[in-house]
Task: structure prediction
Amino acid sequence: MKIKNFSPRDYQNNIKDTCMDNNTLVILPTGLGKTKIALLTSVERLKKFPKSKVLFLTPTKPLASQIYNEFIDNTDIEKIIMLTGKNKPSERKELFNDSSIIIATPQTIQKDLENNRINLEDVSLLCVDEAHRSRQRFANTIVSKNFIENSKNPRIIGLTASPGADKNKIKEIVDNLFIDSLEIRTEDSEDVIKYLQKKENEYLTLELNEEIKKIYNEIKNPYNHKLISLKKFGVNKPLNFISKKDLLSLQMRFRNEIKRKNVLAFRGIVLSSQLIKMDYILELLETQTLNGALKFIEKLKKDTSKSAKSLVNESWFSKCEGLLNEAIEKGVNNPKINKIKEIIKDQLKENNKSKTIIFANYRNTVDDITNMLNNIEGINAIKLVGQKEGISQKKQIATIKQFEEGLYNVLVGTSISEEGLNISGGSDLAIFYDNVSTSIRRIQRAGRVGRIKAGRIIFLMNKDTRDIAYYWKSKKEENKMKNILTNMKDKEIQSNLK
Result:
């Protein structure tokens, strides 16, 4: 039983040695071969316990497919299988019992454990990919607990590039995966720095045009007026600092008050619901596309909730709908759309073999960007969205393959394109059409470029919008996370995380 087709780097072997002796959380920058460390450890555990199995949990089928192929390509282990919800339960039981390496989605294993189709007694290594998901009663957590309680020879590895910027959340991951050792590397670690590809970050700040500002203000004024009404419900926070998170918390408070028969809470929940809907339109105008904002307004007209019906009847609503239609007919759009055209045209002039990944938060925006780019000669764009957004996992895998093989030179995706995907041959350019507010998603996005060769990351931000706020929030979190990780030392987890 051995590895093939790759030579382990020193840091990978060193981390593997730690993983052999301890339940280990491996925190390593994207592109430095976390899966290879799990692969090396898997081979050693199967040598040590010849009749045992390795279970590798990863959150999506596209990721499972990539890891499955990596084990096939880089080991001579027989009986490697992939299990997902697409396999019939009876088939999963048979495959699990007859295999040495099982790569599976955590929800699939959780279901099989709950229904007593499988047991983890003979599993000697549990690898948890994207370990930052191991929180609360998530599937990773449930499977890990079962594993520790039932395995004859338990050992756990957690893999992540970004565990978060909160000590308590990191401690939760550590506790849920029964971790007793940390292996941390940052971009500045001496043993990994030579393997990191150079990434150039560019920050482009754009100005919303006057048509969009006019529509925005038509909504912002009644929105501010409704915010003032919150004072009647005991909200004392300065109105200009009330965020969407505050509104959602307020909505939850009103729901609890309704259970206590508080009549005033019925008015409060309608008001908070209206504010959340209006804030969403404002966000779409600031950061997404005019078409996306118009589609949401059209959706509200079909919404039968009391809050939506009353919004639709307000004077600003029909006025904004008319202004949006006029602007779209004139070809007006978010300035980031035109900037993307310009960037990709220039990129392909410089290198016609270049590959670009564009990240956007919403399906409508992905559709708008993809359609726009496919009307430009020389650009072949394809979208990658999640199952909830209508694309099967089989189609997701096929999309990634087509992008890898060069049938398409631009991949436009929602959050599914952020996490863990390793594009064969790499991409030269990543564009953040919008910005994310968490360090985890920011790091995951940035990890899709510069894995094999040097690359660029371009952040698009509209001036004086939440684009800017989200960028700085995620940047602050990233710096905080790096400081936390730098200050942690192996063998001292409990004292460092108290």
Observations:
- The chain has three domains: 10-195, 199-206+334-484, 210-329.
- The longest helix spans residues 263-287.
- The domain at 199-206+334-484 is CATH 3.40.50.300 (Rossmann fold).
- DSSP finds 19 helices and 13 strands in the chain.
